[in-house]
Amino acid sequence: MAHSVTIHPIDNREDYLELFLMADESEAVVRSYLHQGDAFAFHDEGNVVGACLITYPHPDEAEIKNIALKENARGKGLGKQAIHKLTGCLQSTEASKLIVGTANCSIENIIFYQKAGFRFSFIRKGFFDSYPHPFYENGIQGRDLVYFEKPL
Q1: Tens digit of pLDDT for each residue in 100-110?
Q2: Rounded to two decimals, what is the model's pTM?
Q3: Which residue range(s) make up the domain with 77?
Q4: Residue 122 maps to which CATH number?
């Protein structure tokens, strides 16, 4: 059976904190933006498989501030479906582009965003240097925030 993701607005964002912490391991950082913008849950066959927070840093720009899929939901095309449906929802806003940032060491995310239609945009060097503890993925320290963008 083909999987098909649906998205729904989130009422109580605290209920999704564990999911948001999968995408950003600093609880203090997640809490700093948890109640900004819009929040959505991703469902597959009635089960929550992921969540996303969208903020609006500029009137013409929407940002995926946090997006996460549960481990068992990955590799099924649900993430790309969620991005596609979010893009559709955001077309009713003033935003003309969708941006997303990920750590320089998050190779899987970098690949995913490009496959989902995003292109490199800019880098915030040293962004993660202020995090309480250094983190590593793929043997690389997370230091810079790499941004991608996609037209809406």
Answers
A1: 999 999 999 99
A2: 0.90
A3: 5-151
A4: 3.40.630.30
